[in-house]
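Task 17 of the worksheet. Students: predict the tertiary structure of the chain below and write it out as structure tokens. Keep your answer in the requested format; marks are given for formatting as well as content.
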Amino acid sequence: MSDRPPELPVEVRGLTIGHGGQPIQRDLTFGVRRGEILVIMGDSGSGKSTLMRHMIGLDPPLAGDVYYGGEGYWAAEETRREALRRRFGVLFQNAALWSSMTLEENVVVPLQASAGLPAGEAREIARLKLALVGLAGFEQHYPAQISGGMKKRAGLARAIALDPAILYFDEPSAGLDPLTSRRLDGLIRELRDSLGTTVVLVTHELESIFALGDSAVFLDAERRTMIAQGSPQALRDSAEPKVRAFLGGGER
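Model answer:
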């Protein structure tokens, strides 16, 4: 039997990210364990959302790669990248729902486009996913007819439509009141616990970081690299003053 540890579901190796050839972050290396919630945090302008875009295949990195189950995403052919993308779902900051479609139709889209399911089966699964996030009875509502928190939940239903092993969240609590934000945090945790999903979460909300994060990485805008990694509780006492201040840790 091999002593080699199992492959990490998500692993970033030597990643340099940026726009127009200009690096925002350099030499990022970290992994996400199966069933873990990893928080990507940092101050404004540090490239948190940009990093997520590189991880989900929207923007190519300047150097390095993102590995899914040990397989390099950016080194793969496009047909293989498409297969790798089916492993994860994404909830964007604005939920990114199609305004001209009902909630049910929004969730049906990936079921038919990526899985090729018949219309009737796709609608049935869409209703189940909406019920899972607490939106039973709202299937025929349009995004303009529901609250911001409900839009986030509808976006989450679409993100889990294909039963992904990995979920990405970009500032899921942005624009939500504190109570709705806590409810969304609870839903994310429940989905992780019940489905065993691996989660990568971009956020600056301290309450969400401590409520959800099993581990975290901190991106520094000035040094343009990752300066801390560990559990949020441990990083509150980090040797890095900027990380301590961000997380509300004590003086040294």
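Marker's comment: Residues 1-5 have pLDDT under 50 and may be disordered. The first helix runs from residue 48 to 55.
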